[in-house]
Amino acid sequence: MSNDTHYDVIIIGTGAGGGTLAYTLAPSGKRILILERGNYVPREKENWSSRAVNVEARYHTKELWKDKDGKALHPHINYYVGGNTKFYGAALFRLRERDFTEIRHHGGVSPAWPISYQDLEPYYARAERLYEVHGQRGEDPTEPPATNEYPFPAVSHEPRIQALSEHFANQGLRPFHVPLGIRLNETNPDSSRCIRCNTCDGFACLVHAKSDAQVMCIDPALQHPNVTLLTGAYVSRLDTSASGREITGVHVQRNGQAERYSADVVVVSCGAINSAALLLRSANDKHPHGLGNCSGVVGRHYMGHINSVLMAVSKCPNPTVFQKTLAVNDFYFGSNDFEFPMGHISFVGKLDAVALSAGAPPLTPGFTLDLMAKHSLDFWLTSEDLPDPENRVTLDREGRFRITEQEKGGRTGDDVFSCSSNDFAGAGVEPFRDCLVKRRSPTYHRAKATSSRQIVDDLVACRSCALVKSDLLIRVDDAHNSNFSRIGHIEFPSGKPFVKEPYSACERACRSRSHNLCDFVRPYDLE
Ligand SMILES: Cc1cc2nc3c(=O)[nH]c(=O)nc-3n(C[C@H](O)[C@H](O)[C@H](O)COP(=O)(O)OP(=O)(O)OC[C@H]3O[C@@H](n4cnc5c(N)ncnc54)[C@H](O)[C@@H]3O)c2cc1C
Ligand code: SF4
To answer: Of all atoms in ligand 2, which is nearest to the CA of residue 184?
Structure first.
């Protein structure tokens, strides 16, 4: 084998995992080859275009996967230098101490990790320095002990979010500033890389001010002459020695050519799904079920965040530009009336009419969406999945991924927020309802045009309706996992107590959280 193709270390993937490792190993002087299937995100105006990102899905892979029923699934993931961190929301949390222990959820048990939070604490501290995290210790009631302050001060709230934060605090909650990896200098704006724009969460940063794995890790690593990056280098399989214990070859497809590399150490950091797929694809005589898979566990226990976006549409406008600064963890491990974990509440980047149009029925008037977006507080609700062995990544005969997800033990059922025809009867929200739930509900065939004024009136009427406890809460996203769907369909919640039994953990969690949010948002917005 030629020396040119043998390295000390090969790192496959340049995301949070591979990028951070490359940065850390680069000063060692070892010969390091980084293999990345994608290219650099092109720097272009579309980086910050809501239409290009949210409607046209310009940067998502065009790969087609399959869901559990064998139907085509468009994964909303990105193959670029920096991996998914190019598009992430840059909320950089540590896990909580209790997250490492066995936790009982409504839908089952999350087993203990083999390591503890204390084992990882020094690495969290280093990662926070590397990714220039901006935050404020001591605010988040679930925060684990830390040996360091955040390296940079928290990103401030804009007035509407500050007011909401104060209102939450007055109600007895303990809102806090989201720890963020954006390179914002609020004391000296002229020297700040970050310009605090409205296209951050889900967008690549055109001015390279987001702490992503390309900017913070791969670019500096490549300053070292011992580090080489090959882009457009898709790793198709790994060879092993006759004993089956060492990786002897890394097969790469690049520019339509087959290439083969080797290294003393090979790191598979292609993301949760692609790493499993690569190990499964590399099956050989010694490892007929894939590498490292004599247990049959590779690809199983796949866990995603269970995400929903909840729009609280309020009479009070929300002109916030960068909204993702506020979070609430008071229900993270449960509440007085619900003993199981309910997850984390924060914000997505400010939704606009274009982003909403991606999930709205085709005839929804643009001004309706615009008005909604201008009045909405766009909450991000995240709870955790359970490690179910049947939630798994497998490959079909052609090598395509299949993701099998079970709707149990913590999954959000579609019925949680679904709308029945009676829910809004008399609530004065006819025009909204007809426009927006048409696709989901065959009884609503008309897409009525409506005036902006009427919509605001509807919202006000809606607030005083007994069925809808306060402002209108709209579920925008049925993202079981941010890998799969970002902005899904728009639905209206019933606002009534949800009557379906038995509740899955997440149904219950969403129910409690949306009610909690309702309760807290309402008094403020009635002011
Ligand atoms: C829109 C969005 C918002 C998010 N917001 C947040 C947030 O606010 N906070 C947070 O903590 N997390 C967030 N995440 C999640 C976070 O981005 C991921 O958890 C993280 O990037 C995972 O890192 P990784 O290294 O495991 O994988 P990835 O970042 O996915 O990197 C894997 C890399 O491997 C490459 N690759 C894959 N297969 C191959 C192959 N066969 N050969 C060669 N290369 C390959 C890919 O192209 C990619 O570059 C968000 C994700 C998305 C999509
Ligand atoms: S808010 Fe800052 S980091 Fe985020 S995209 Fe805008 S300029 Fe970049």
So the answer is: 2
